[in-house]
Amino acid sequence: MTRIPIVIDGRTVEAEPETTVAAALLNDGIWGFRSSVESEPRGPVCAMGICFECRVTIDGIPHRRACMELCRPGMEIETGG
Amino acid sequence: MAETLKTEVTVVGAGPAGIAAACRAAESGARVLLLDENPRAGGQIWRGTRCGRGPAGARRWLARLSDSSARLVDTTAVVDTDGDGGLLVERRGEALVVEGERLIVASGARELFLPFPGWTLPNVLGVGGGQALLKSGVSFRGRKIVIAGSGPLLLPVAAALATSGAHLRLVAEQAPAHRVHGFALSCWRYPGKLIEATRYRAAFLATAYRTGVWAVAARGDDRVEEVVLTDGHRSWTEPCDYLLASYGLVPNLELPRLLGCAVDNDRVTVDDHQLTTVDDVYCAGEPTGIGGLELALVEGEIAGLAAAGRDREETALAGRRRRLERFAAALAHAFAPRQELAERVEVDTTICRCEDVAWKQLHPAGSFRQAKLATRVGMGPCQGRVCGPALALLRGWEADRVRPPLRVSTLGVLASRSKGPAGH
Question: How confident is the model over B173-229, as pLDDT tens digits?
């Protein structure tokens, strides 16, 4: 199956088919997905949509759970929000 | 007004219980809608199952589901009741109302997380969280991993990680040796479970599996780099790229509680037909008591038959359900979190990860409600799903009343309720 081009913080990378955004970010060496109320880096914890720690901006929409979204071609992901 | 979907049986949750319920109800001739938040059916345990991939049982049930007339509505979260017997749900930012004559709640379970110094560092995950990430496509090849948690889930997760090429350094079970061994001995009645456990253990033989060991702190700069472990006498440090630390499962009771179903001791009260105390609302799987895959399937089948009016066909399943319930009780006893896990918390330890509320801020409060008002604990986007069960254990606080919306949602979705909010 062909790999899926996605854009992470302005860089184009290729994700494997059927991977979630969370998986694509971790595989790209990003573990701080967002910044907490006290500005601590946070990343996925439950990976099943419960904890909301993996929130990123996807195609301009903030607070999307990276663990609940499959990578789609051309998807733009912003971390650190 | 939101679009309305009408059906006979609505099933919430497409994990094993929901899939079994949807299949049985649909095969009995009922019109069935199966809702799930995830993009694929399978729940947590069958995540990542596709054609030619995943356990045979999972593939069989998923094939049975797609052969049935049940319609899967994926990427869909229940937000509220619509005030009129239906459910207000959100799908890709749009509101929908689902009106079913009967409802089967199969909302599953989440992991129990307990706070300890450093647990908020990136790459400190749940045990099931690690498994979910692996199934979602994360490559752990060559990564140093320590698992320090509890329960039978440790074995398949360790096996899967080792098989995927991870450098698994230690598997630590917090339960003491005598409990774990006693449980293993009691498993002679369930040879299938023992064979399964042995098969998993064989997949990570290069790594120690130690009972009576738990993590006391995670350390690192911008992610976990090492974990401090203890056996109660001696402490030591293990370097790691990922730490998997969670302590079994807690049921997702928000929807049944919102619907008014009686809950006793963290279990939705159900009768022999999986019927709750609310008319036409059934419940199956983990919310009726943590029991694992096979019990969830049996309960789902019973609920599906009952909701389709085929009660008499359930009898054959009732015996299996009783046997599996005994196994679940033994499991809960063996892997109960030890007191020392609650004693790891320090004054500055973050308890509420959404709002960054530290232990010392909670100290004066006497109840979850008081603490919420004073500190915003449990009021972030997870709505207390992580810190709530932790505070039940740390402080003995009962969960606060469930209030809609059940999920963070948009004003547009919330505005599409056909009636005013309950109680107004």
Answer: 999 999 999 998 888 888 888 899 999 999 999 999 999 999 999 999 999 999 999
* Domain around B350: 346-395
Give residue limits of the domains in chain A: 4-78
Across the interface, do A51 and B132 touch by the CB < 8 Å criterion?
no
Chain A from 20 to 79: CB within 8 A of any B CB: 20, 22-24, 26-27, 31-33, 36-38, 40-53, 55, 63, 67-70
What total number of domains does chain B contain? 3
CB-nearest partner of A31 from B39, B50, B223: B223
The reply to whether B298 falls in a domain is yes
ipTM greater than cut 0.90: yes
Chain A residues touching B358 at Cβ < 8 A? none
pTM for this predicted structure: 0.93
Distance from CA of B207 to the nearest CA of A (A): 23
Judged against a pLDDT cut of 90, whether residue B316 lies above it is answered with no
CATH code for the part of the protein at A4-78 = 3.10.20.440
Q: Using H for helix, E for strand and C for coil, what is the string for chain A?
A: CCCEEEEECCEEEEECCCCEHHHHHHHCCCCCCEECCCCCEECCCCCCCCCCCCEEEECCEEEEEHHHCECCCCCEEECCC
> Do B284 and B374 belong together in one domain?
no
Q: Give the CATH number for residue B294.
A: 3.50.50.60
